[in-house]
Write a structure and sequence with these properties.
With 89 residues, this protein is of the alpha+beta class. Helix content is 31%, strand content 30%. The chain has one domain (2-81).
């Protein structure tokens, strides 16, 4: 989710995957796949950068997953395998 501010001062979050297009007119217009549109205070280039950073973060997070689960440090993995509650025990 990314935070967006409308021209009327309304703050909301939107999933970048639901954005169909962004139009640069006198204002920045965000059009969602369901046809809803918002005129935002956010500059066109800033909005594109925010979406790009969000997607990059999601890719990094996915890359850290191992078989769908968050990767654990080796010491914690070994401790769990041997039934210990913590790695230092």
């Amino acid at each position: 989710m990314i935070a967006v501010t409308c021209r009327n001062g309304e703050h909301f979050s939107v999933d970048p995957d639901t954005i169909e297009r962004i139009e640069k007119r006198a204002d920045t217009l965000v059009v969602l796949v369901d046809g809803t549109h918002f005129v935002t205070e956010t500059d066109f280039d800033e909005l594109l950068h925010t979406i790009s950073a969000h997607r990059a973060g999601a890719l990094v997070t996915r890359a850290r997953l191992v078989n769908g689960y968050a990767a654990m440090p080796n010491a914690s993995r070994l401790a769990r395998r041997h039934g210990s509650g913590t790695a230092g025990s």
